Amino acid sequence: MPLHRIFHPPGAFSVAEKTSLSERITKLYTNRGLPAFYVVILFTPIEKDSFFVGGQSTDKFIRIVVQHLARQLPNDQRKAEFSEKYEEAIAPFIKDKGYDWEVHVEEVPPEMWRENGLIPPIKFPEIEKEWARLNKPIPY
Amino acid sequence: MPLHRIFHPPGAFSVAEKTSLSERITKLYTNRGLPAFYVVILFTPIEKDSFFVGGQSTDKFIRIVVQHLARQLPNDQRKAEFSEKYEEAIAPFIKDKGYDWEVHVEEVPPEMWRENGLIPPIKFPEIEKEWARLNKPIPY
Amino acid sequence: MPLHRIFHPPGAFSVAEKTSLSERITKLYTNRGLPAFYVVILFTPIEKDSFFVGGQSTDKFIRIVVQHLARQLPNDQRKAEFSEKYEEAIAPFIKDKGYDWEVHVEEVPPEMWRENGLIPPIKFPEIEKEWARLNKPIPY
């Protein structure tokens, strides 16, 4: 569900850092009861001569695009809270290492979303819990 | 129009499989009369140590992001039907090979969509047919 | 803010061309007073055997996905004008070199958009001017 695409300079993260950053991001969702496997994070290295900010090539910038499907945050306050928590989660690997960065989160309607071909049980909290417990989608 | 981004483990698909999968996806649209060239499919290999699902690195997962521009499906039933057909189209290359996978389809308003700089003839079925017949955009 | 993802055949652009194209795109926004650093452009080479248009592998096609956050264009005429200017900006590097291409622009609500963790001053023109003047985000 949440899809996180992280565009970064090739050397920005070690494998250990990518793992740790992924764990921190995943926890933002599992803390709310979502199945861990919903959280997909794709690290995409972009070479300096293909990464432009303000018309200039850079290896000091990280751009993150997040898409939410399982939950639409209902109002501006909740959205602001999410952004705040997200910034805390990523700070040790981005801000604290001296990068500039930009994040945006999109909310995508879930009607054409499928996990292993199954309709995610957004409207069936008990089944969603079961998916979370097993950490995989099962027919219902 | 439909843009399909397929994020996959580097070795997931042979060139023949990518071709065949692309043909099957393309037919979903040409069957409805859309020009074949509207259908763009980008395969993006993601290394195992950059592909995280549920906080864990994986080479067993395929994530597909689809964007529709030429047609907005008018109701939930039609959307569900599309998802079903899409799952059938991709199953031989993903489900049947033992991967886990996730798909979502987004519907993007077409006002700022251009093909070779031309406004696609969404509102002009006769011209769209001509684009489909020639399989290229021509001024009108 | 504006995020431009340019999917292109590996050899399509020299570094000088990528720089020049990025400068031309960036000017579309700085001409309107937006901070230059808002404009992020990611060039993503896609190998011929991973780039399919109409079910066929190609190295003659360029696909551009643009996302706007800081400004939603208020009506269809303004959107059409933007698309026209965009096409002019990219033509020397795409149309004039004989590629086929497709562009679409999406407008994403800005509530969960952050620059270096800060809420961009969309509603504070004086602060936005200051960000533009300094070409970096500063707390306010």
From TrEMBL, chains A, B, C:
InterPro entries: Cis-CaaD-like (IPR028116), Tautomerase/MIF_sf (IPR014347). It comes from the Eukaryota. Residues 1-136 form the Tautomerase cis-CaaD-like domain. Pfam families: Tautomerase_3. This is Tautomerase cis-CaaD-like domain-containing protein. The lineage of its organism: Eukaryota, Metazoa, Spiralia, Gnathifera, Rotifera.
